Amino acid sequence: MKNFLKDRGLEFSDEKTLITHIDNGFDFLGWNFRKYKGKLLVKPSKKSIDKVTEKISNTIDKGKTWKQEELINALNPIITGWSNYHQSVVSSEIFNKLDSRIWNMLWHWAKRRHPHKSRYWIANKYWHSDGKRKWIFSEGNKQLNLLSDTKIVRHTKLKLDMNPHLDEDYFILRKIKLGVKKLTNLANRVWDKTKKDWQPETETMINNCCPI
Questions:
Q1: Strand partners, 79
Q2: Domain match, 103 and 51 both
């Protein structure tokens, strides 16, 4: 391996290199790689989870006096960015847990703003329903994104005889295919959010709709 890297102008860092058993696992690029009962699972690392939780908590704390829409605008990029990064690994359970944590943080945020109001009043002011889902933290058409809305897009398994330094065409095509999957997922999420806000009012509008 050292010779392989040396030919490409790279070398190991003894300080950053860790040799460990796969059953014990290791963290890399925000993910934890570990075998569970003989099966390798890649999940968001505890460090990455703690970091995004702290970032969201600090943002909510910073927004004590913000309008609800301002807080949503500040949180959505954090939530969407983190969930998109981890959507290709085993993240569903963690997404749901983080959604629950965020809900609790927002509940405390809302209660702190209205210490003399009832729970019912607070819930009705800050959380709404779209018919299918309840407890949507929203104001008007602006609503908080959920990590659990991000669908998991599995990586296509690598061909073991392929080398990223030698078989560039294979890896370029693989990256394109994965990108298409993620874009399709994003388009579906946008469509799900917008379709309920627009309904054709006349038969003429229906006939003139451009099919997607």
A1: none
A2: yes
Looking at the 3D structure of the chain, how many domains does it have? 2
Residues 173 and 84 occupy one common structural domain: no
Distance CA 134, CA 137 (A): 9
The token pair that represents 172 in the structure block: 């370029």
At 177 the three-state DSSP class reads helix
Separation of alpha carbons 43 and 107, rounded Å: 28
Going across the sheet that includes 127-128, the strands are 127-128, 136-139, 142-143
Do 181 and 128 share a structural domain?
no
pLDDT in tens, 142-200: 999 999 999 888 766 666 676 666 567 777 776 776 666 666 555 555 555 554 444 44
Rounded CA-CA distance 49/184 in Å is 26
| Dist. CA 41–CA 152, nearest whole Å | 14
Q: In what order do the strands lie in the sheet with 31-36?
A: 26-28, 31-36, 39-44
Helix axes 68-85, 92-113, angle to 10 degrees: 170
